[in-house]
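User: Quick sanity check before I run a bigger batch. Here is a single chain. Can you write out its predicted 3D structure?
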Amino acid sequence: MAAVAAVGLFVFVAGLRGVGFVVVTLVVGTAVTGAALWWALTRRGAVRALAAVLAVAAPVAVIWLQIASGLLGPLVVCLVLGALATGAGWSALAAESGPKPQHATAAPRPARPFLIMNPRSGGGKVGRFGLREKAEAAGATVALLDPQRRTDVAALARRAVADGADLLGVAGGDGTQALVAAVAAEHGIPFVVVPAGTRNHFAMDLGLDREDPSAALDALADGVELTVDLGLVGTRVFVNNASFGAYAAVVQSDAYRDDKLRTTLDLFPDVLTHRVGPRLTVRARAMTIDAPQAVLVSNNPYRVGDPGAPGRRDRLDTGVLGLLSISVDSAAQAAALLGGDRSRGLTVLTTHEVVVDADAPEVHVGLDGEALTLPVPVRCTIRPGALRVRVPRHRPGVPRARPRLEWRKLVMLALAR
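Assistant: Done. Predicted structure follows.
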């Protein structure tokens, strides 16, 4: 009803000519914005500055045209009705066929938990939240990494297991989490995630409170257990994703850690236009993707087309990889990408294996944000149910899984009632 009301109201108020005017301005404005963003990313100097101005001016001009024509008010009402329709549709589909949250099982309290903590992660969250003291009070042995020297955290975890540790944990970023998670999976013991890094996507999809990493330590005393998958690039484990192409090339730069935005803008013009770096070839599910600029292989698929929860995974135990690939060679193709997940330059699928090849002997890989260089071809696979994760019984951020919004199915459900 809300969707029909949105369309009907706008046609009634604006008339067919008004509807045509709004559609044309929105399409043109979107195309100009997409093209301008492409030029801003692939050019330098004055051209980049002009493109950035155009990218801002295009949507402003669209809004001004709606105000001048007197159609902005009705358009806003229709957008509100559209948002209501979308929200109601997701609720209806979730009630009918939405994916169920992952089941957690009861877990005994560990006898000899061992946690590795990086005091530099997240700008010093370990010290700011008193994580070492709280973990030791809960009976854990804590190894605090020395910021002045490089430590092999995987070897440290293996020594702890050899000494009798029956649980491993990490307070740090996703890259460190993956290294120790691999050891926990290898020995079949549970793993605790303490979100003390900067982004902590793995912790987010486990439902942990990233604003208060100390809450994750409740898993030591009153925890439940989840079984999750692990991604593999060759023999290297990843808990979130492996990236190839533009982002992987950027994270290789030493300057990236200190100034992410400037480094990205400096390198993108050459990387996105294939002036530097190898040309990739990606194979998955009998499909071949030639020369994509960016490839993301994720441990379980990310949500696509859900602006309310970008970068979230509904579950971590589906047993499949997610593949997202972007191929853009012109401003027109960049504009088409703004059309969503059905754009020709965007490939989104799930698979059990992804093979990345190149016209060079090696490729850069961003593995959970860590920079690597690997020989080609690079084979990405998944190990279903490889890791036992101990989490607190009460988790505030457990993602609410949402199915794909299918209007045909919604109409059938509504009429069937």
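The mean pLDDT is 88.

User: Great, the batch can go ahead then.
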